[in-house]
Specification:
Layout (H helix, E strand, L loop, with lengths): L7 H18 L8 H16 L3 E7 L9 H21 L6 E8 L4 E8 L19 H11 L3 E6 L3 E8 L4
Parallel strand pairs: 1-2
Antiparallel strand pairs: 2-3, 3-5, 4-5
Length: 169
Amino acid sequence: MRHCRKDYDKLNGYLFTTCENLESTYARYNTGNLVIDSMMTNYKNIADQNGIVFTDDIALITENIPVEDYDLCIILGNLLDNAVNACILSDSYDKSISVQIYIDENNKFIISIKNTFVEQRASTSNTDTLYHGYGIRNIELLVERYHGMYKVTTDTLYKTYIVIPVLEK
């Protein structure tokens, strides 16, 4: 007969760590588009780690997305990265990001992101041009390439709105 050590505390610790690792890598989104699923999962995890409320509304048929995956990665990655960074820098107690991705009734692909932000000071100098300043320009160029519109407004939230027509292939 084998002797069992019954070391339940170690087992509980191991199971807790394993579950945490699974939760952090588990894809929370399953739209059928790998870019949207992975970007949304990654930035939801980052938001959770930083106490940022992250909400979403995604409703689309992924075959109708009029943007190539590589370009969608650049657009969505820059938008979500900017939103998370703005929230982290904000002094607000109610940090939030709201993401909507859908195709509307007029056959337009929409990405709408609203987030908490810090208003830019009048005298900002960005000495780190290697890593900053190109994301928004890349978004503008890609949206233009797909014959779309890119708009940003600010009031109590920073709001980014992208509209790209779904053209016949």
